[in-house]
Amino acid sequence: MRAGEGEGVLRRLLLALVMVGALGLGAELFLLEHFESAWQWAPLAVLAFIAAAGVAMGLRPTRATVRLFQFGMGLAVAAGLVGLYLHYRGNAEFELESDVTVKGVALVWAALRGATPALAPGAMVQLGLLGLILAHRHPALGARNNSGESR
User: Fold this and answer.
1) Sign, Cα dihedral of 53, 56, 57, 58
2) pLDDT class of 63 with cuts at 50, 70, 90
3) CA distances for 54 relative to 33, 141, 146, angstroms
4) What is the pLDDT of residue 4?
5) By the 8 A CB rule, do 26 and 44 touch?
């Protein structure tokens, strides 16, 4: 292998993982009919954006497509964090409606184990972080010196 060739192979494999993850999560959300409200449509839209940006970057890795991909990965992290909050909050509200006396650790435990999978949106966070690792110092972004300027 020539210098840098291994890095290219690794980037292609990571992109394949991101694409499989985005398509798999999208299919899962679709099968769960995760589209009753705008909040539930948001992760589907983010996943579609990631798939499009991933295809664009895979076919033509330019500065613009890598930045677009990075933006999508940031959206995935943000959407996942919001989803974690919304899933937990929904479960906590349900538990409080069922038993107004539940509080503290008991409420947290019940909300984490509730009907809505409280930690499932963490998969979006993980996908976004994986994509950000893939795009970190991508060759299409150009070489940078320590001050952040192009060489």
Assistant:
1) positive
2) very high
3) 24, 16, 28
4) 64
5) yes
Round to the nearest angstrom and report the end-to-end CA distance of the chain.
26
Residue 92 CB neighbour total at 10 angstroms: 18
pTM: 0.87
Residue labelled with tokens 């538990």? 95
Taking residue 41's Cβ as centre, other Cβ atoms within 10 Å add up to 13
User: What is the reported pLDDT for 5?
Assistant: 74
Distance between alpha carbon 92 and the CA centroid of its chain, in Å? Answer: 24
- Residues 101-123 as b/e (b if ≥16 CB within 10 A, e otherwise) read ebeeeebbebbeebeeebebbeb
- Chain Cα centroid distance, residue 129: 7
Predicted pLDDT of residue 143: 65
Q: How many CB atoms lie within 10 A of CB 64?
A: 12
Place of tokens 């909300």: 111
Q: Which residues contact 65 (CB under 8 A, 6 or more apart)?
A: 53, 56, 57, 140
Q: What angle do CA 142, 68, 73 make, to 5 degrees?
A: 105
